[in-house]
Amino acid sequence: MQWPQTFSRPPRRRRSASAPGALLIVFGMLLAVTGCRQLPQKEWNDLEALRRELRREGLAGYLPDDFSRFEASFAKTRHQFAVESNTSPLFRNNEELAAKIAAEIAQALRLREHGVAEKTRLRKLEQEAIEQLENSVVIWRSGTLDPDQRRLIARIELQTANAKAFWQQSEFLKVRDLLEDIDEENAAFQSQLEGLTERYRNPRELGRWQLWAKRTIEWSRNHKKAALVVDKYNRQALLYNAGKLVERLPVDLGWNRFPDKVQYGDGATPEGRYRVTRKKSGALTKYFLALLLDYPNAADRRDFALAKRRGEIHRRARIGALIEIHGEGGRGRDWTQGCAALSNPDMERLYGIAYLGMPVTIVGQLQAVTEGRK
Amino acid sequence: MRTKSVLVLIVGVLLLAGCASKPDQEITASQTALEAARTAEADIYSAETYQAAADSMKSAEAEIAAQDQKSSFSRNYDKAKELLGQAKTQADSAAASAVTNKEKAKTDAETAQQDAQTALDAAKAALASAPKGKGTKADLDALQGDLTAAETSFGEAKSSLDGGKFLDALNQFRAVKEKADAVAADIQQATQKKKVS
């Protein structure tokens, strides 16, 4: 076939020169496009590492709702990442994926910050709660020898020790649950304790005790002699001379600390206005030195008879006796059968001052009176 | 000739596409391994490795889902298989560690139980043989209250041990031992006070 002169085919040389150029341009453009569409692999790795860290630190439990939202969002991003990984670089939507991953990373960082803050807060609160419980247990233990109360206190003590062990193992969520259990035991004990100390909150009782103490102090002032006031609630004996407070002495009381003494063997320390009837030393006492009181006095006998008539105590019950202020105390807990025990050095000083007929007034508490005299 | 070539090409492509089938066998193997790890309580006793296995499994599932969205001609489950293999290896490892760690926790708890029992027996014997007099009776009765509480806690610790909660049991038995030792020391002190007075 002959080509017409005017439409003759272009020279081959020229066509072959332009084709590689065009291919090069296309190839270059492809490279440029795909180069810009690399998967955000590094960011993804960072996100996964952050998520692992959140789990390793156990932060999920501190912000459960936030963490489950994060997990749901992470699952979607993981799916999208897998989809994009399997898509040709030419058709990837990397910008959207990168933005999602960046948002996830920001969320993970926030979770880490808040989770650590919450964990630290809980750790501190629990530490305080455990320390408070440990201190309370020491105080409660020192305040009673009643076996039932001691059993309740020991239960709280054991559970506190258990919680402390988990706390030391950084299991703060577990400790939170354990402390809730302790609260229940504590409530049972507090309720028993409140029952026992109810009359200490009774204004009439307080008024009566304050009056006794006031009269004792007045007697001391008027006679310019020593007198002793024992405050059961605060476990201290206040020594007055000529109406002035000269010394506060710690005392151990009857193992049944809070009630008034009603009968023999109840372990309670009697409340009332008494006098020293005998000073005992050497072989006369096994408690270093002792001041025997005139318990039971007329008021105690009347109360005892009334309790028997009302059937509050057994008809064969006996009234107690031999209530003393004696030595061998200073144990920091209530252990006597109803006496008030001082440490031997304190008892030695008191014994030197004491005299027959010295007033010894024992009250539940006399907060207002003692505060007024401070 | 040209038609023949096209047919061969189509058959070849179809064969290749047929090769890219879902890795069901690997999925089952990984799921079974994860289930076994969970049964071995790897989520408690080998938590980090177990979590890594679970994560690999999730990644594999995401990869499979991504492949499923593609046309059957371009599907490739190689990466999914790799992730599934990784999940299985990690799950197996978590299960093995869990067995070891759990056994150790159990042994530790049992040792703590024996120690607590010995301490309780010693405290009870001391209480039974302590002379009860005016100066000690109240003290000893109170210590009996303490000991009763320790025995109750011992029972709870034993329930934890029987229930497979070895870490709980370990701490509980240790607290009981500490308390029983303290009671024994208090009994000795109370008895000595009696001797002194």
Architecture overview:
The complex is a heterodimer of chains A (374) and B (197). Chain A is α+β, with helices and mostly antiparallel strands and 374 residues long. Chain A folds into 2 domains: 26-199, no CATH class; 202-373, L,D-transpeptidase catalytic domain-like (Beta Barrel), CATH 2.40.440. Helices cover 56% and strands 12% of the residues of chain A. Chain A is built from 10 helices and 8 strands. Chain A has helices at 12-36, 41-56, 64-85, 94-143, 147-168, 172-197, 203-223, 298-309, 344-353, 367-373, and strands spanning 226-231, 236-241, 244-250, 272-281, 289-293, 324-326, 340-341, 359-363. Chain A has an 8-stranded mixed sheet with strand order 3-2-1-8-4-5-6-7. In chain A, a hairpin with a 2-residue loop joins β2 and β3 (244-250). Chain B is mostly helical and 197 residues long. In chain B, α2 runs parallel beside α5 (78-129). At the A-B interface, α2, α3 and α5 of A face α4, α6 and α7 of B.
Biggest sheet features of chain B: none
Q: End-to-end span of chain A in angstroms?
A: 134 Å
Any low-confidence stretches of chain B, pLDDT <50, length ≥5?
none
Strand content of chain A: 5-15%
Mean pLDDT reading of chain B: 87
Task: Tell me the fraction of residues in β-strands of chain B, as a range.
Answer: under 5%
Largest interface: A-B, 40 and 39 residues
Major sheet strand order of chain A: 3-2-1-8-4-5-6-7
Gyration radius from CA atoms of chain A, angstroms: 42 Å
What can be said about the biggest beta sheet of chain A? 8 strands, mixed
Overall average residue pLDDT of chain A: 86
Helix proportion range of chain B: over 70%
Overall geometry of chain A comes to rod-shaped
Beta strands of chain B, count: 0
Order of helices and strands of chain A: HHHHHHHEEEEEHEEHEH
Domains of chain A, number: 2
How many domains make up the 3D coordinates of chain B?
2
User: Number of helical runs of chain B?
Assistant: 7
User: How many strand units of chain A?
Assistant: 8
Q: Give the low-pLDDT segments of chain A.
A: 368-374
Helix and strand content put the structural class of chain B at mainly alpha
